[in-house]
Design a protein that fits this description.
The complex is a heterodimer of chains A (about 280) and B (about 300). In chain A, strand 10 and strand 11 form a beta hairpin. The longest helix of chain A is centred in the middle third of the chain and has 18 residues. Chain A is about 40% helix and about 20% strand. Chain A is built from ten helices and twelve strands. In chain A, strands 1-2-3-4-7-8-9-12 form an eight-stranded parallel beta barrel, surrounded by five helices. Chain A has about 280 residues and is an alpha/beta fold. The two termini of chain A are about 20 Å apart. With about 300 residues, chain B is mainly α. A three-stranded antiparallel beta sheet of chain B has the order 1-2-3. Chain B is elongated. The interface between A and B is large, with 70 and 59 residues.
């Protein structure tokens, strides 16, 4: 949904992930890009070249922060040092909203550095929503939680993944970073209809959409972010923007990263679907 | 199963080392069959057993963390060779799992851990420790804090002997038994240290490593520092190292120089000129922070 409370009432268009392999191209050629998404943890440092480059990017482009280690679903309190550094970065980037994953990854102070799947229980939803609220209150900006790709399901789950997502975002009153590639990957791994997922989320809470490629293996799909977006994922994206409207969209490409132009051209394919949302609004 | 119990149960399995063929072990951390352990909390589906689904996460944990250490310590990898390096990293991660939200800090305990586990480096223990110190200092210098640099005018009217200078936080001082700076520059390859946002790798990123001929010991003193945000290694004299170390400890300038020169081989009549030249160089490279405002500091 463009310009909603969960993305700071912005309408950012199509962005790509800021990656080190593209720094030179971006800083020397200054290509026209609607916005860049940064991985917060890469810049939650005290100084040096990464922050120098970030400042140069911030001089010319809009930047949104995306995190990988807040672990809203971990059954332990948020790490204070993490929050302090994150807030410093938020002040630096002036990101209009901040996203991280609906997952867990640490327990008893030990970090797996992975995005581990949640058990879809009411207990977990309640705890996760409470942590989202704590982080939002500390950072004082809108939060969007992203659905992750998963490879396992738990016996204790009491609802579907999309019901769990809805339960969390309603309890936390936060936004959704809807990753349609992750929905596709999980739908293949867990045999559900991905359109049911997309049709079930509260469209008014969608702050941003992720698109990406993945890798298919004999018995499962891995979310590798190393390929172009496949047609079934574009179809999910089309449905998502039909429901949510002209939404900030971000292509993730994290491994075997091709040229800047190739990544950006892939992302701009989303224009075809976003244009339809504007047309629908006009008529 | 409650959330905390489930997360502890899964984390124990995910963080348990793989077999030599990089598969999940058949025995759980508690010694029970892993198939039963996984089936307790993970559902199978029509293609994968509970064991196989859990194994995906177990493998990704180790691939991700071992790749991270490999990228951060290419010099150590060269010193130990790939097999020893892998074995050492696995043992290190079992003893020192990550306690930071960022993989940047994964190797922070490696020097101290290897000191008490010399078997992993064998005859190359001292060399291995030196290269770890240098590679960790490189990480710290790369993204360490920088404060406003000291200017000449900041020293006006300052009492020389009791003046307390401060080194920039990113400046790292190393006393090393081996000339590992040349070694590291030789073996270093470009590294991609970014954290992918939500991406898995099916396999580990392996980099070809050639065994490094054993270096001969030769004491060096090194400053790992930054110029225009690029990290450099600068060899310095023993006395320079001593003065800088005393300054870092907070000693007043006069005392720092006095302590550093006690065992100096520099003839007494040349010491003043040497000290003056060192300070000119250090200041030119911005190694000193601006003096604290005594009012603000109080």
């Amino acid at each position: 949904m463009p310009g909603n409370e969960f993305n700071g009432f912005t309408d950012y268009g199509i962005g790509i992930g800021l990656r080190a392999t593209h720094y030179d191209h971006i800083l020397t050629r200054q290509p026209v890009v609607d916005w860049f998404e940064i991985i917060s943890e890469n810049f939650m440092i005290d100084g040096g070249r990464p922050l120098q480059i970030l400042d140069s990017i911030l001089d010319q482009y809009k930047v949104v922060q995306h995190g990988v280690s807040m672990y809203f679903g971990s059954a332990e309190r948020p790490n204070r040092e993490h929050l302090r550094r994150l807030k410093d970065l938020v002040k630096r980037t002036k990101t209009p909203w901040l996203s991280d994953h609906l997952c867990w990854g640490s327990v008893d102070g030990r970090y797996t550095h992975d995005l581990l799947p949640m058990p879809y229980t009411f207990e977990a939803a309640k705890l996760t929503a409470e942590k989202v609220r704590q982080v939002r209150d500390f950072l004082e900006i809108p939060i969007a939680v992203e659905n992750v790709s998963s490879y396992a399901e738990f016996h204790v789950s009491e609802m579907t993944e999309w019901e769990f997502l809805n339960e969390v975002v309603e309890r936390a009153d936060c936004g959704i970073l809807l990753d349609v590639n992750n929905i596709y990957v999980s739908s293949q791994n867990h045999s559900f209809d991905p359109f049911t997922y997309v049709n079930s989320i509260p469209a008014k809470r969608v702050a941003q959409i992720h698109i990406a490629g993945h890798s298919k293996y004999r018995k499962y799909i891995l979310d590798t972010h190393d390929h172009p977006v496949i047609d079934p994922v574009w179809k999910l994206y089309e449905r998502a923007v039909q429901r949510a409207g002209h939404t900030a969209t971000l292509l993730e490409w994290d491994d075997s990263i091709p040229s800047f132009k190739e990544v950006h051209d892939e992302a701009l394919k989303a224009n075809k679907f976003l244009a339809d949302t504007l047309l629908a609004k006009a008529v | 199963m409650k959330l905390l119990e489930l997360q502890r149960t899964m984390a124990r399995a995910v963080m348990q080392p793989l077999t030599s063929s990089e598969q999940m072990r058949n025995t759980s951390p508690g010694g029970t069959p892993m198939r039963a352990y996984a089936a307790r909390f993970i559902k199978p589906n029509d293609r994968l057993t509970s064991f196989e689904r859990l194994e995906i996460y177990n493998r990704q944990y180790w691939f991700r963390l071992l790749s991270s250490l490999s990228e951060d310590f290419p010099g150590l990898r060269s010193v130990l060779g790939e097999r020893r390096f892998d074995a050492m990293c696995k043992a290190y991660l079992v003893d020192c799992p990550s306690r930071s939200f960022t993989l940047r800090n994964l190797g922070s305990q490696l020097e101290f851990w290897l000191e008490s586990h010399p078997g992993f480096a064998g005859a190359n223990q001292a060399l291995a420790l030196d290269i770890i110190r240098l590679e960790w200092a490189d990480i710290e210098a790369f993204d360490g804090k920088i404060e406003l640099a000291l200017r000449a005018e900041d020293l006006a009217n300052q009492p020389g002997d009791t003046l307390r200078l401060r080194l920039q936080p990113y400046v790292r001082l190393l006393s090393l038994r081996y000339p590992v700076d040349d070694l590291l520059l030789d073996v270093r390859t470009d590294q991609d240290t970014e954290v992918a946002s939500n991406a898995f790798r099916e396999g580990r990123k392996r980099k070809k490593v050639r065994a490094v001929a054993r270096l001969k010991p030769s004491r060096i003193f090194l400053v790992v520092h930054r110029i225009d945000n690029s990290v450099y290694f600068r060899r310095i004299e023993a006395e320079e190292f001593a003065v800088l170390s005393q300054i870092r400890k907070g000693k007043p300038l006069g005392k720092a120089i006095e302590l550093a020169m006690r065992k100096s081989k520099i003839p007494p009549d040349q010491q003043a000129a040497s000290v003056q030249e060192w300070f000119q160089n250090w200041s030119a490279m911005g190694w000193f922070c601006r003096l604290e405002d005594p009012v603000a500091a109080s």
